[in-house]
Each structure stands twice: as structure tokens, then as C-alpha cells.
Amino acid sequence: MSSQQHMTQRRPRIHRLIAAQALIGLGAAVIAAGIAGREAALAAALGALTCLLPQAWFAWRVFGRGLEGDAGAMLQTMYRGEAAKLAAIVVLFVAIFRLWPEVPPLPLVLSFIAVQSVHWFAPLLLGE
Fold this sequence. Notes:
Layout: H1 3-10, H2 14-36, H3 38-64, H4 71-99, H5 105-116, H6 122-125
């Protein structure tokens, strides 16, 4: 089996992780709506999207195209992708607080944390 075929077969099923994050974000927004109303639900949804959108971009950038080349090139792709993801998270949080200064911070941050915590289950979700 060629190394290209091996890479294609071993590519993680990252869509499972993204789907799980989306479900957790949706659940967080529903729970926030039930507890504190519409504004809290919107804040929770924004917190979830602040985590989910950069993560989905990172997954597409790094895994969607495939990690090819030598180990140094792969590592460089991962580092650049992670740096861009973290920068996007900062930009999104700043934008939320600038555009909606009265945003309820608790549902925003808690839903971000809930969506981010899905990574703990990545080995189960990715079938590794």
C-alpha cells in the first residue's frame, strides 16, 4: 500500500467532532433559553459559534486538504492553523463585546467552554 493510500485511509473523521460540537452548542443555547430567556440563548449561541467556526476552519485547513509532505511541513501546517484559529477566536470575542456590550457573559463563556470540551472525547468520536 502506498503512503498516499495510507494517508487517505488514516485521515481522521473530523466531521464527527465538528457535529458533536454543533450539537453541544445547540444544547447550550436551548438550556440557556429555558433558564434565562432569549438574550441568554443568543449569548450561548454566539459563544458556541465562537468556538465552532474557527475549529471548523482549522479542520478544513489541516485535515480537509490532507497532511502531505515531510513531518516538518505537516507540523508547520498544524502550527499555522492553530495560530490562525486562536486569532479568530480572539477576533470573534472582541467583535461580540464591541457589537453587543450588554451581552450576558456567563452563557457566552459557558457555551464556549462546553463546545471546546468536546475535544476530550475526540478519540471516541474520531474512531481512533
